[in-house]
Design goal:
Elements (H helix, E strand, L loop, with lengths): L3 H7 L13 H11 L12 E5 L2 H22 L2 H4 L2 H5 L11 E8 L5 H18 L3 E4 L9 H6 L6 E10 L21
Antiparallel strand pairs: 1-2, 2-4, 3-4
Helix pairs in contact: 2-6
Amino acid sequence: MTDFRDLLRLRRSVRDYEDREVPVSLVRELITDACEAPSASNRQPCGFVVVANRGMMRRLSDESKKNLLSDMKALKSPMLRLYRPVLKDENFNVFYNAPCLIYITGPRDLHSTVKDCSLAASYLMLSAAGRGLGTCWVDLGSAIKAPETLAELHIPEDHKIVASIILGYPREIPPRPPRNEPKILTIIK
């Protein structure tokens, strides 16, 4: 097992994968590890949807791109606008042609859903890195709205997608980008 501090430095956002499937049994292990994450009042609200079908992933990518382009008109987000050229590119796959996608969902009306699901996503990504797998949290892939698509994914009506994590065997691990010094605002003793 990798030392935890080494593991923190080993986990990278991977966007280039081998053309090799991730065994479902291994994906189940990663999800089990993700469920070790803490959650508010130990509610454990996260749901997981695994998509290991590249045709389906392509359809999800296309729907997400369409919805994001539509949202740009209403959201006025300068950050989102930076993505306009790639979102308009019909060949761009927001999931980078990864062999597996995991959506992490949680109840819309639970105040801690985003925090709880984010912690589960972190545990999942660290578990994957410890097993030699690459992951990337691809927020561009979370804009799934069509009721028929959500039903096909078996996402309950009262849930929302919090994280979309791609997963696979990396062609290479990207180098670690420089990190800023921590911004400790104060220490009160």
